[in-house]
Write a structure and sequence with these properties.
By secondary structure, the chain is an alpha+beta fold. It folds into 2 domains: 132 residues; 253 residues, no CATH class. Helices cover 32% and strands 22% of the residues. The chain is built from 13 helices and 19 strands. The strands form 6 sheets. A 6-stranded mixed β-sheet has the order 11-10-9-8-7-15. β10 and β11 form a beta hairpin. α2 crosses α5, α3 packs antiparallel against α4 and α4 runs antiparallel to α5. The N and C termini lie far apart (74 Å).
């Protein structure tokens, strides 16, 4: 009996060993060890590391974001080893490799960056080869997916919320009551944008004609250039109002010599990157832009929203032919999220669904137990002959008032050229002979805290009102994740995409 048990145990161990041998392991060679060391050092010492650079446990050459999490979940619904699994898994792996490369580039000291990127390229090629070896191996493909799922770090948007609320428990009901009142009474309709004085910021449109000829297959860089907005900045009664200058963020020393963010209004700049929305089982391109002001000036005595460095975000979701469906706007802190659908998108929703269920537009859904989406007005009609949306921005408060296609820019008091830079450059600003991120380790703009952060602390919100790095934005008092690829399907009643335009 004992010998039979030992024989069975040996067979089981052998079988498990064979299965494991077919499962790709994360690279453990010298290059992999060096990359782990670089990432660990950066996590504790690098001035460019922040919370948005989430790496897979033990494998910093693989990065994580909300898109990776959703792609991983969707992959679990497919038959492992099938052609569909392999195709979607390949896209998942490439996304993780892209994010990992970006994080390692930021983690590496300037003198070691070339060596780090060479190590990353070698290790990542091994990851690709290991994945391709899964073709037709269902058991091994399943184990690969389980390995990925277990290695993903936990999502962190709400980390510490319960503790913050408990630590200020007596004030919790009052703060939550104020939030509910504000959500119920805030103005969600159109914003006046017939400005008396306007400063125009215009992007480079010299490549538009070349890009539109192959718009459906345009590269990420081409899409960012093609849809870069024209910004109509309202000016106060004094047209040289410096708080309304769009500029380039930089780092300056505070009184302790530590870096804090400021914005140079003499260098008009907009920052862009690509993300993806998951709509009706399809992955759609999204062009993302941010533009920055030196401060949010006090509009009243002891204004809780006043503070240094102000950012606005514009995101445009494109259809399968890379034509716009809807623009979204929000502050860089996640406040005042708004949607501006093109007229064809709303018209298709009216045909499909009839009467609106939330607000004046058929697209807006009635989301149970959450704040409903805000659609102030439509974004006009897209015309590829002038693809750049016109973005109206209020003076002082810097809230985006409207996003419009097919509308002529207002007469300007003065006009500036708007330079386009990659969003990642905000995390590589000059500092002390090297580089540092505009954002601290928790993802918040250095020196950008607002008084309202302390006022809303009992709600559990993390530094409410403080601008933050891409990838960690929460909107409508943290009821939605702005970076969730399925956000549009959560907020909107979306008609068949083929029925639009």
């Amino acid at each position: 009996m004992k010998s039979t048990f030992l024989l069975l145990l040996s067979v089981m161990l052998l079988a498990s060993g064979c299965a494991a041998s077919r499962t790709p392991e994360f690279a453990a060679d010298s290059a992999g060890e060096r990359l782990r060391s670089v990432a660990e050092t950066a996590r504790h010492h690098s001035m460019t590391w922040n919370i948005s650079h989430r790496g897979v446990k033990g494998s910093p050459w693989l990065g994580v974001d909300d898109e990776v999490r959703l792609r991983t979940a969707l992959l679990g619904d497919l038959d492992a080893g099938s052609p569909e699994f392999m195709a979607d898994g390949r896209e998942l792996l490439e996304r993780m490799l892209e994010l990992g490369t970006e994080s390692l580039r930021l983690a590496a000291a300037p003198e070691e960056q070339n060596a780090v990127l060479a190590d990353a390229a070698a290790v990542q090629q091994r990851e690709r080869e290991a994945f391709e070896a899964l073709a037709g191996e269902e058991a091994a493909a399943k184990q690969w997916l389980v390995h990925i799922k277990r290695a993903l770090p936990p999502a962190e948007p709400h980390a510490g919320r319960t503790w913050r609320a408990l630590s200020a428990a007596p004030a919790w009901p009052f703060v939550r009551g104020w939030i509910a009142w504000h959500a119920a009474h805030e103005w969600r309709g159109p914003n006046w944008h017939d400005f008396a004085y306007v400063r125009l910021y215009e992007p480079d449109a010299s490549r538009d004609a070349a890009i539109v000829a192959h718009l459906g297959e345009a590269t990420d860089d081409e899409l960012l250039r093609f849809y870069a907005p024209v910004i109509a900045q309202e000016l106060a009664e004094t047209p040289d109002y410096r708080d309304d200058l769009i500029g380039a963020p930089e780092l300056v020393p505070d009184r302790h010599g530590d870096p804090v963010g400021r914005v140079d209004g003499t260098r008009p700049t907009i920052y862009g990157h690509i993300s993806h929305a998951f709509v009706q089982g399809r992955w759609l391109n999204q062009v993302n832009y941010s533009f920055w002001y030196n401060d949010h000036p006090a509009g009243k005595k002891d204004d809780p929203e006043a503070g240094m460095v102000e950012g606005q975000l514009l995101r445009i979701t494109l259809d399968e032919n890379n034509r716009p469906l809807v623009a979204e706007t929000t502050y860089a802190c996640g406040c005042y999220h708004r949607l501006y659908p093109v007229e064809a998108f709303e018209a298709a929703a009216e045909r499909a669904f009839g009467e609106p269920v939330s607000g004046p537009y058929a697209l807006a859904d009635d989301v149970p137990h959450r704040i409903d989406p805000a659609i102030p007005e439509l974004a006009g009609t897209f015309d590829s002959r002038w693809p750049h949306p016109l973005v109206y921005v209020r003076s002082g408060f810097h809230m985006i008032a409207a996003v419009k296609w097919g509308e002529a820019a207002p007469e300007a008091w003065e006009t500036f050229a708007l330079e386009l830079q990659p969003s990642v450059s905000l995390e590589q600003l000059p500092w002390g002979g090297g580089t540092a991120s505009l954002f601290a380790r928790d993802g918040l703009v250095r020196g950008g805290d607002r008084p309202e952060a302390r006022m809303l602390y009992p709600s559990g919100l993390y530094h409410a009102g403080t601008p933050r790095v891409r990838g960690i934005h929460e909107i409508h008092f943290d009821e939605y994740d702005y970076d969730d690829p399925a956000l549009l399907e959560t907020m909107l009643r979306i008609p068949e995409l083929k029925e639009i335009h």
